[in-house]
Amino acid sequence: MSMRYNENNAPLIKVVYSQIKINGKTELIPLELYADGSLKRSAG
Q: In Å, what is the CA distance from 43 to each residue of 5, 23, 24?
């Protein structure tokens, strides 16, 4: 598996999940956590 990087060339550390409520229903949203501390919505 190739390493993924963000636009600042920081490597992807792990995918974390954030809970959000939509119409009273809790959903998990995957977010990519990068080494520089930035979060990006996971594409898949």
A: 13, 23, 24
